[in-house]
């Protein structure tokens, strides 16, 4: 007695699902290494089951297509191959899994079955991430000459990779290339592009280029590629002057001296100091130059004018000058230069000069005078010279050299110049020569007509004139031609020759004729011949005929070209009337308008001799059979009829051998279009039931038609043969054997195969009357209907006879015939005797009887038994052999012997039962008795078997113990349990061990094997906790044990039955994140970036709030969201640089990443911060613009302006000083506020009066040093020189900068030269030409400020005004102007110092 303790319950013996086994290796490889495992079903399906296999990551592993199982192959193991994939990413060894599930449309019992997961690992093939940057192709230079380099990745990235080349200074521009993952094998090109600063830099500064990599976490964590160092941008700027446009010689006219010919002047690079350019002309008798158009702005009287290019960002503004021509009254037109000369503190510009060479066109215009033309309308009939045209020609002005006038006709085939007939000088045609002495004497030109062979209508001809040599004023002179016409006298047409040769169908003979034109064509003429009836005649000429303008050659217009025609042999019998046929011509695509309008008719009629005769034809008919295949043949016509032909078929017989098949019409119709198409004829044979042999008979044919030749055919016949299918003979029916026991009888039928000519009689006889007798003895077959009719079955009965002998089954014959026919049938009496074989079955058979035994039981003990008896007494002892099919379940004795005296006794046989430890179920086994030996009559008997069961007492199953404890993620904590079998297997049993969640727990062994001889020994299973990087808490999972494979049928039936153990994996994951910052931002627009990456996978999206501490320096998006499926990827955030106008240096700001919201685990984390600098792009500079000189006279002050080029962060104090306070004084300092930095600040220089007659004394004004805003303090002071004009002598006109103390008027010099125009002795000039600023403090160099003198004693503290309303148009925006004088708009504005009445004057 054995007891078994079950820890786990058996969950369904025939669970429907998927089984796997024999995983060859848990690893695949990126080098293509494969692994395999086997798959089958756990139970037999009733319908098809599809197992779908999916790789969790097809970039790591791929496998074969789905597997289909059915009721026949469900237990067969199918090998599945998984192939490692090369993702070309440097990602190390990557785990993935293969999931097996039941596919759609499968057996409903399998739908919903648990999936199977195979955990695998794809081994990396050594991909390594690196960035290869090629050498710089060339040193970069300004003007678009970039230095180029290549960038390539060595492996595929997971995310896009951006590689940026970042210059260390503003000499070059940042450039980036981005690689999508699919582009990693592409070599991309980057550039080092120079900033074109427009400044002349003979020795450019050096800089370096660093590389910054962002994007993919692997690539962005690599060391940056090596920098390019020692770079410099070769300068493309050269100091110089250039014209925006040039005037060609002769573009200027002396006749328009008031027209402004604008000359726009530019400088080619940014200067370091203002550049003043003055203009002049080399010959003031030909022209003068001024700075602007006198109609738009008052101009000075001098021809020399100057304009200034500023040394700021306005250096590109063009300066416009006006060049005015002068009419010198001379016929000479000399060239002269307009000269521009530069002066500047910039040594590269000082002394530069540029010239434009021009030439005026004189006021005297040369001309050709044609006095009259006598005649202009010609006709070709005038070609004999009977009519000519004459024209008188002379010059309009006296030339300084000989003038050669060339005369030409545009078409000398129509009109020719006959006088002058010769050429002269450089003229290739007729020529007239005019000299300084005969220029006004008329010369005669005479024109004549010419005749051609073309019908070209009235032709227009131009008589042209051209001067090729002579004074320049005559060369190229455009002279209108004389238009004349020439009438036509020709008419075009075609000429055809007669046909040569005969046309016959027999042999398809050829003939020919020719074609030509009767006038010369204007252009080549093409005509294409064709036959009017290609069924009678064809044109052999392959191509169209082309006639050219030539008189000679094979294609000349007056040369006959041959057309060949060929007769066509048709199938028509046209012997009654031959049809006419012609050759038609069609004009081709040609440009000759004359011949395109000509009618092109056909040739005369041709006739083709016929060779055809009307006839009906047919194929040889096949034989017709009385039963089965009909006779078939086809009929058609030999020639094409002119009208339809009807062929009628008929059979004339009272007892026909065949009929026209009902499937066809007996009337066949042939039309002119279907005459040659064979039409089938079918004749069915008639079955007459006589054996009369094969018969030939006539089929009548009648032909009718409207075609006379076919209608004359009339009637004829076609012979048909019908094949007989009857053969005289007897037909015998089937029968069964007779038996002695009964006895029983049998029968069979007899009838004739064909109708006899007379009655037939057949005798019936048994060859062994001891076994069987027959009736009737005679069979009668008659020709008439009734029971004895020839085709009615006649029954013959055979009675079996019992002879009481054990003689077995006896076979004998029943004979029929030979037949007789007293009436004289010729066929049946000739037949032979027919025998019918009959068997009489013996009824004496020996046997023995075996009773049914009872079942045995393994666990209760006790034997069973059965009995054996003989049914017939034997003549000798009978020995019965005995055996058991499963001796391990039950046994019997080897044999049983029965004596003749005991043949009718019951003999008992004992069955002994057997017990085992195998769950083999209730086993059926067989007891075999026999075959008998001994008595000869029993030797023919076979063995008998009886089936019974041995009731089993074992149950196969799996015993699973409780687990030792939980598993842990931290340190891979382990737990164990044991597994065993509950019964002995016949063959080894393999148990599959699986975890339903390998992300929480994995097994040390995937299977256990139990051998039959060791089956009681239990196996230990170790479970290891798995770290999944998820914030999922303590997670429960199950370990399952199931039978994976066994040749033991009982344990194999347990496949799909799971025995589970519950386990909990203790979590160790803590949420955190990593922020990777990029480089600094730059005010020049260079942005930066940083990335945010989670270190553990969240359960819900994580939201990071983003903030910049100083949005005037840099900004970031409000937030970045990371989804659970994207947790392994770094998320890039762009930091956008902001530009200001402040000189505030590099400003540090803070980027805050957080707080976090969304996922509960991450929401508890604190924000992180990091600092960056926004690199300043402002460079300190300031501009000092000196004014005029001061004067000792009362009110003789001057001024200058100071303007900052960048905005300070705090007020800037600028110190001022005069080198000689006895000559001039200035305030000690002034302050510029940050908000007031953009406008120029005017400073008054007060001229000091002394009693000495010391002349004009120089002094220096120093601007600086600077204090206040930190970055301004390093600026160096600027010094400029002025003069204090002495007033201790006689009053004279002074230089700019003074005012008249007693006058209220001012004489303004708009030229900006600070010179007074004829001033009175008591008048001094006030400064003019200063630039205005608009309300936004933008300097406007297209405005000029003028002002009247201030009232006497009025202090002027600032000398620059702010404009209230700059207006571009007086008629619209200046409606409220003070006045509108000479087209100049003046708008009021107020001086900051309090003095008003200034006016804004716009050029």
Q: Average pLDDT, to the nearest integer?
A: 81
Number of strands: 104
Rg of Cα set: 65 Å
In the predicted model, the low-confidence regions spanning at least 5 consecutive residues are 1-14, 293-302, 1290-1337, 1340-1403
How would you characterize the overall build of this protein?
This protein is mainly β and 1403 residues long. The chain is 1% helix and 42% strand. β102 and β103 form a beta hairpin. The chain starts with 17 loop residues before the first strand and ends with a strand. Mean pLDDT is 81; it is low at 1-14, 293-302, 1290-1337 and 1340-1403.
Key phrases:
1403 residues; mainly beta; 6-stranded antiparallel sheet; 5-stranded mixed sheet; 5 helices; 104 strands; 1% helix; disordered N terminus
């Amino acid at each position: 007695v054995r007891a078994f303790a079950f820890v786990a319950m058996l969950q369904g013996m025939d669970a429907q699902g998927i089984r796997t086994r024999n995983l060859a290796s848990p690893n695949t490889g990126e080098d293509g290494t494969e692994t395999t495992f086997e798959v089958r079903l756990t139970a037999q399906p009733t319908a098809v089951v599809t197992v779908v296999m999916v790789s969790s990551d097809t970039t790591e592993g791929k496998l074969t297509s789905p597997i289909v199982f059915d009721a026949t192959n469900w237990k067969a193991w199918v090998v599945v191959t998984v192939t490692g994939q090369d993702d070309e990413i440097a990602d190390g060894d990557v785990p993935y899994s293969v999931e097996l599930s039941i596919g759609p449309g499968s057996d409903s019992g399998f739908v919903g079955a648990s999936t199977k997961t195979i955990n695998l690992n794809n081994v990396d093939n050594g991909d390594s991430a690196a960035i290869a940057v090629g050498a710089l192709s060339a040193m970069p230079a300004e003007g678009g000459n970039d230095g180029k380099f290549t960038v390539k990745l060595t492996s595929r990235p997971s995310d896009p990779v951006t590689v940026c080349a970042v210059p260390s200074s503003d000499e070059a521009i940042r450039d980036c290339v981005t690689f999508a993952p699919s582009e990693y094998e592409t070599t991309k090109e980057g550039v080092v592009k120079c900033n074109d600063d427009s400044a002349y830099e003979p020795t450019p500064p050096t800089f370096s280029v660093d590389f910054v990599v962002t994007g993919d976490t692997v690539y962005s964590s690599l060391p940056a590629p090596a920098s390019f160092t020692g770079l410099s941008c070769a300068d493309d700027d050269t100091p110089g002057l250039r014209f925006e446009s040039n005037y060609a010689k002769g573009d200027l006219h002396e006749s328009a001296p008031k027209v402004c010919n604008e000359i726009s002047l530019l400088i080619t690079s940014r200067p370091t100091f203002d550049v003043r350019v003055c203009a002049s002309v080399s010959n003031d008798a030909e022209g003068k130059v001024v700075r602007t158009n006198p109609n738009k702005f008052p101009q000075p009287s001098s021809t020399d004018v100057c304009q200034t290019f500023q040394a700021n960002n306005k250096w590109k503004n063009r300066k416009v000058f006006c060049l005015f021509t002068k009419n010198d009254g001379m016929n000479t037109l000399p060239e002269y230069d307009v000269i521009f000369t530069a002066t500047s503190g910039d040594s590269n510009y000082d002394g530069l000069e540029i010239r434009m060479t021009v030439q005026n066109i004189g006021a005297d215009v040369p001309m050709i005078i044609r006095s009259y033309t006598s005649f202009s309308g010609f006709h070709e009939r005038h070609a004999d010279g009977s009519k000519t045209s004459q024209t008188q020609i002379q010059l309009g002005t006296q030339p300084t050299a000989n003038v050669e006038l060339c005369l030409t006709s545009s078409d000398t085939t129509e009109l020719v110049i006959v006088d002058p007939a010769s050429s002269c000088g450089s003229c290739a045609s007729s020529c007239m020569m005019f000299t300084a002495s005969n220029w006004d004497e008329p010369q005669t030109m005479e024109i004549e007509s010419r005749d051609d062979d073309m019908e070209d209508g009235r032709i227009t001809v131009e008589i042209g004139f051209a001067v090729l040599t002579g004074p320049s004023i005559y060369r190229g002179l455009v002279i209108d031609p004389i238009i004349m016409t020439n009438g036509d006298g020709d008419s075009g047409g075609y000429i055809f020759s007669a046909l040569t040769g005969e046309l016959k169908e027999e042999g398809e003979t050829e003939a020919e004729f020719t074609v030509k034109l009767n006038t010369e064509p204007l252009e080549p003429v093409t005509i294409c011949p064709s036959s009017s009836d290609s069924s009678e005649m064809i044109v052999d000429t392959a191509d169209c005929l082309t006639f050219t303008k030539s008189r000679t050659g094979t294609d000349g217009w007056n040369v006959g070209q041959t057309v060949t025609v060929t007769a066509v042999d048709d199938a028509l019998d046209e012997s009654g009337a031959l049809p006419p046929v012609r050759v038609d011509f069609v004009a081709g695509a040609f440009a000759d308008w004359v011949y395109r309008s000509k009618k092109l008719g056909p040739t005369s009629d041709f006739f083709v001799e016929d060779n055809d005769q009307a006839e009906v034809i047919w194929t040889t008919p096949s034989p017709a059979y009385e039963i089965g295949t009909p006779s078939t043949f086809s009929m058609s016509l030999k020639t094409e009829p002119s009208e339809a032909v009807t062929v009628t078929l008929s059979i004339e017989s009272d007892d026909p051998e065949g009929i026209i098949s009902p499937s066809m019409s007996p009337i066949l119709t042939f039309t002119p279009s279907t005459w040659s198409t064979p039409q089938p004829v079918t004749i069915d044979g008639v079955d007459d039931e006589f054996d009369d042999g094969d018969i030939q008979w006539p089929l009548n044919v009648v032909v009718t038609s409207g075609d006379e030749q076919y209608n004359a055919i009339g009637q004829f016949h076609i012979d048909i043969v019908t094949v007989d299918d009857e053969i005289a003979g007897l037909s015998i029916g089937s029968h069964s054997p007779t038996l002695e026991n009964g006895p029983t009888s049998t029968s069979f039928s007899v009838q004739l195969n064909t109708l006899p000519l007379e009655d037939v009689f057949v005798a019936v006889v048994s060859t062994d009357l001891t076994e069987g007798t027959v009736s009737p003895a005679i069979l009668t077959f008659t020709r008439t209907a009734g029971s004895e009719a020839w085709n009615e079955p006649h029954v013959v009965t055979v009675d079996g006879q019992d002879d009481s002998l054990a003689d077995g089954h006896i076979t004998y014959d029943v004979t029929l015939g030979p037949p007789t026919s007293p009436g004289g049938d010729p066929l049946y009496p000739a037949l032979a005797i027919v025998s019918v074989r009959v068997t009489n079955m013996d009824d004496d058979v020996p046997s023995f009887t075996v009773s049914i035994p009872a079942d045995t039981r393994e666990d209760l003990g006790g034997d069973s038994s059965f009995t054996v008896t003989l049914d017939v007494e034997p003549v000798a002892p009978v020995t019965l052999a005995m055996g058991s099919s499963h001796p391990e379940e039950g046994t019997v004795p080897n044999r049983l012997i029965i004596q003749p005296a005991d043949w009718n006794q019951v003999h008992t046989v004992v069955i002994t039962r057997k017990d085992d430890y195998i769950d083999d179920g209730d086993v059926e086994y067989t007891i075999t008795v026999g075959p008998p030996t001994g008595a000869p009559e029993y030797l023919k008997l076979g063995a008998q078997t009886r089936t019974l069961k041995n009731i089993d007492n074992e149950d196969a199953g799996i015993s699973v113990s409780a687990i030792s404890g939980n598993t842990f993620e931290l340190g891979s904590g382990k737990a164990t349990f044991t597994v065993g079998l509950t019964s002995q297997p016949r063959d080894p049993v393999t148990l599959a061990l699986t975890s339903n969640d390998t992300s929480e727990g994995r097994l040390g062994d995937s299977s256990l094997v139990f051998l039959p001889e060791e089956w009681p020994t239990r196996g230990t299973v170790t479970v290891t906790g798995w770290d999944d990087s998820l914030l999922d808490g303590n997670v429960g999972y199950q370990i399952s044990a199931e039978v994976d494979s066994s040749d033991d049928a009982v344990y194999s039936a347990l496949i799909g039955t799971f025995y589970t153990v519950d386990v909990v994996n203790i979590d160790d994951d803590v949420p955190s994140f990593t922020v990777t910052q990029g480089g600094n931002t730059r005010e020049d627009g260079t942005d930066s970036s940083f990335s945010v990456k989670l270190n553990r996978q969240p359960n819900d999206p994580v939201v990071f709030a983003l903030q910049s501490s100083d949005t005037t320096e840099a900004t970031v998006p409000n937030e970045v969201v990371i989804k659970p499926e994207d947790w392994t990827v770094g998320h890039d955030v762009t930091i956008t640089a902001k530009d200001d106008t402040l000189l505030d240096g590099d400003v540090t700001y803070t980027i805050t990443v957080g707080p976090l919201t969304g996922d509960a685990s991450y929401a508890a984390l604190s924000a992180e911060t990091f600092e960056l600098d926004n690199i300043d792009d402002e460079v300190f500079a300031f501009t000092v613009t000196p004014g005029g000189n001061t004067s000792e006279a009362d009110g003789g002050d001057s001024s200058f302006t100071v303007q900052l080029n960048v905005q300070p962060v705090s007020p800037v104090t600028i110190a001022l000083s005069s080198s000689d306070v006895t000559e001039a004084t200035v305030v000690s300092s002034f302050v510029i506020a940050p908000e007031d930095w953009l406008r120029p600040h005017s400073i008054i220089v007060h001229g000091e009066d002394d009693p000495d007659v010391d002349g004009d004394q120089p002094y220096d004004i120093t601007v600086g040093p600077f204090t206040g805003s930190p970055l301004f303090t390093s600026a160096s002071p600027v010094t400029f020189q002025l003069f204090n004009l002495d007033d201790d002598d006689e009053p004279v006109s002074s230089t700019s900068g003074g005012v008249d103390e007693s006058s209220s008027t001012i004489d303004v010099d708009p030229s900006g030269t600070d010179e007074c125009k004829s001033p009175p002795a008591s008048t001094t000039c006030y400064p003019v030409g200063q630039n205005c600023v608009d309300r936004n403090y933008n300097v406007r160099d297209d405005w000029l400020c003028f002002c009247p003198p201030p009232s006497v004693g009025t202090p002027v503290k600032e000398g620059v005004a702010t404009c209230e309303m700059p207006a571009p148009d007086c008629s619209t925006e200046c409606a409220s102007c003070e006045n509108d004088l000479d087209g100049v708009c003046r708008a009021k504005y107020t001086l900051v110092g309090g003095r008003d009445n200034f006016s804004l004057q716009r050029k």
